[in-house]
């Protein structure tokens, strides 16, 4: 059903159906895990269903974000929905899909600090600290007061033994919180 909805461009319905399938498959896996312990049988079919539903959901999230970004006039809610789709992709470990979403977002809105932040998070997950630092620094150009982003950047500086840079950020945060 999710595939049919996706072909009909009823993306929200497709996502809802696929989320239901994933929830049912996860429940089945938990049941099958218990059954396997009792009978020693693997839950291969439930795993395949879950993996297929996750693949479809990832593809639909990317497609929906791309479609929104292709629209002429976007509201802040539209941009937030695109960011949410990218974050969901990160949560599903589809880092390439998320990277695609955030690069498209930034191509259209190069001053979107959240887009740079999430690209940094992708690079952190992949162990690319230098690239993550560059994206974090870029995010703070547009969102300089975001304390969470600054803490993440300070942590990356520490990982790279850039202790003076990390200390400078921490001291700025302390100064601002004392005011």
List the helices and strands and how they pair.
Elements: H1 2-7, H2 11-39, H3 44-69, H4 76-91, H5 95-108, H6 113-125, H7 129-142, H8 147-159, H9 163-178
Shape call: globular
Strand proportion, as a percent range, falls in under 5%
Oligomer: single chain
What's the tally of helices? 9
Report the helical percentage: over 70%
Short structural description:
This protein is mainly alpha-helical and 179 residues long.
Characterise the protein shown here:
- The protein is mainly alpha-helical.
- 82% of the residues lie in helices and 0% in strands.
- The protein is built from 9 helices and no strands.
- The longest helix has 29 residues, at 11-39.
- It is globular.
- Residues 34-41 have low confidence and may be disordered.
What structural keywords apply?
179 residues, mainly alpha, 9 helices
């Amino acid at each position: 059903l999710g595939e049919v909805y996706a072909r009909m461009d009823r993306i929200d319905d497709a996502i809802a159906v696929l989320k239901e399938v994933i929830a049912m498959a996860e429940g089945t896996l938990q049941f099958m895990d218990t059954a396997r312990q009792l009978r020693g049988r693997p839950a291969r079919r439930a795993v395949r269903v879950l993996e297929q539903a996750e693949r479809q959901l990832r593809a639909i999230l990317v497609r929906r974000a791309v479609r929104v970004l292709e629209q002429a006039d976007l509201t802040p809610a539209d941009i937030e929905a695109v960011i949410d789709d990218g974050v969901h992709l990160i949560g599903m470990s589809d880092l390439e899909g998320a990277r695609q979403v955030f690069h498209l977002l930034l191509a259209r809105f190069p001053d979107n600090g959240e887009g740079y932040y999430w690209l940094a998070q992708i690079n952190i997950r992949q162990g690319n600290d230098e690239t993550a630092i560059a994206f974090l620094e870029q995010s703070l150009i547009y969102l300089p007061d975001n304390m969470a982003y600054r803490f993440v950047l300070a942590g990356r500086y520490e990982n790279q033994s850039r202790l003076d840079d990390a200390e400078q950020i921490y001291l700025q945060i302390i100064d601002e919180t004392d005011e």
